[in-house]
Amino acid sequence: MPGIVIVGVQWGDEGKGKATDLLGDRTDWVVKFNGGNNAGHTVVIGDEKYALHLLPSGILSPGVNPVIGNGVVVDLEVLFYELEALAARGLDTSRLRISANAHIITQYHRTLDKVTERFLGKRQIGTTGRGIGPAYADKINRVGIRVQDLFDENILRQKVEGALDQKNHLLVKVFNRRAIAVDEIVDDLLSYAERLRPMVADTALLLSEALDAGDVVVFEGGQATMLDVDHGTYPFVTSSSATAGGAATGSGVGPNRLDRIVGIVKAYTTRVGSGPFPTELFDEQGEWLRSRGFEFGTTTGRPRRVGWYDAPITRYATRINGITDLVLTKLDILTGLDEIPVCVAYDVDGERFDEVPVNQSDFHHATPILEYFPGWSEDISGARTFDELPLEAQDYVLALEQMSGTRISVIGVGPARDAVIVRHDLVD
């Protein structure tokens, strides 16, 4: 079973990096197929904590070949900062390969992201301001800069000139900002070219050959289902395909090569940025969850919005992605609660919705219909089998499994690398 896709079920920050790392010793390749450095993966190995933003988390596992696919937008400054930081900690990053077709985030993308978001005022999307959206917009508008363009200065200059012809008018006349010089962008991008060259490859071909050879290839999604540009809470979404279908388009691997779809879901729910969130908590329980779960963005440091587990969202993500296995993370955070609410349906102006409403306005006005489950007080961080969990914790997991439409194969019971309970193997 060589092709495994890992996707977020909620609004991101579910612990996808840890799930990828869990497969590390049996994984030959790890592919990041969407997003940029707007998402963060935190991986704990022994006493060491690693916060990755652009790099695939598989880069931390010896012998694994990490790949940045064509569906990713790459900030070269961030790329080399992360590589140098890992090298300084003694990690080998020489296996990294980057698709020649991946698009580049430039200075003008970052500038436009920030000024556009401020211009929206109360209608802000909640972007990270890192240029991801404008870079994807240029890709769709066919005026983007690709990795391969850095190796032909004439082509690069032509593309930058074409992009800035329009963008400088916007910056100067609408946003009252200074114009950006073509040479400023070209010189900056060219300064990375020779360091980048050894990493660039036809990654779609490499991955196809790896799958043909029977290697285990893990496709690691950034963000999550509810942030997918097509299937998320539009317009409060990211700019790429964060669902399992994006693994094929974002890597150049055919969908028939994807054998298992693993969804990562927290034992409660969080999101960052604007947009609807039916189970969101605004009271002391919300602050307790945020503090206990350390719910602050890996990339931005922003406090995450927190709420109870939302079963309709998990069912929705299971359908959209074709999820075969769930990894339930942060179960330990709920320890100490007398009872644990779970959203089993929504109320929208007196009408019950058992599934996520197709109408965004309905979803925005939805309030959760909650079912309550007994909590537990025992420390579960040392549990390594399902039977070692308190009965109340077992019942909670089994209830979520029944509501979610697919099996819960792995349970996270702490931040450490080995703090997991494996009920079903994700590879065999």
Radius of gyration: 22 Å
User: How many E-type strands?
Assistant: 20
Give the % helix: 25-40%
End-to-end separation = 7 Å
Low-confidence stretches: none
CATH 2nd-level architecture of the largest domain = Alpha-Beta Complex
Binding site for substrate: 298-304
Active site: 13 (proton acceptor), 41 (proton donor), 139
Function: Plays an important role in the de novo pathway of purine nucleotide biosynthesis. Catalyzes the first committed step in the biosynthesis of AMP from IMP.
Main location: cytoplasm
TL;DR?
The chain has 428 residues and is α/β, with parallel strands linked by helices.
Can you lay out the helices and strands and say which pair or pack?
Elements lengths: L2 E6 L7 H7 L6 E4 L8 E5 L2 E5 L12 E4 L4 E2 L1 H13 L8 E3 L3 E2 L2 H14 L11 H9 L12 H22 L7 H9 L2 H4 L3 E2 L1 H10 L4 E4 L23 H6 L10 E7 L2 E3 L12 H9 L12 E3 L1 E2 H11 L3 E5 L9 E10 L2 E3 L6 H5 L2 E8 L16 H14 L2 E6 L7 E3 L6
Parallel strand pairs: 1-10, 1-11, 2-5, 2-10, 5-7, 6-8, 7-9, 11-15, 14-16, 15-19
Antiparallel strand pairs: 3-4, 12-13, 16-17, 16-18, 19-20
Helix pairs in contact: 3-4, 5-6
